[in-house]
Amino acid sequence: MKELVSRCPIEEVMQVLSGRWPTLLVYYLQDGTKRFSDLRRDNPTISHKMLTLELRKLEDAGVVQRTQFPGYPLRVEYDLTEAGQKLVPLLDGLGEWWLKSDEATG
Q1: How do the domains of the chain map onto residue ranges?
Q2: 57 neighbors 23 (Cβ within 8 angstroms)
Q3: Most buried residue, 1, 19, 25, 76, by CB count within 10 Å?
Q4: Using one digit for the tens of pLDDT, what is the confidence trace for 14-65?
């Protein structure tokens, strides 16, 4: 079990998933392995630097696994870890909640 920095596990989760990009990256990685360029194509408004920072944050949190292959040109692939895969149904549930809410339906 992870040691909590704060007393609230939701606060811990929000530190990992807060912001514009982390949940979208988990969403795009749910379909399987992606290269950096694939993630840039899926998210055309994210900068190279921001994508790098967000992937590192998710990797540090144990949500994403980065695999670097030897050789030239450099090839790096990203996958959800088992912990990351467990987030997918939770995010799907949030999406369903939004679609059923008064805010989404006007």
Answers
A1: 14-97
A2: no
A3: 25
A4: 888 888 899 999 999 999 999 999 999 988 999 999 999 999 999 999 999 9
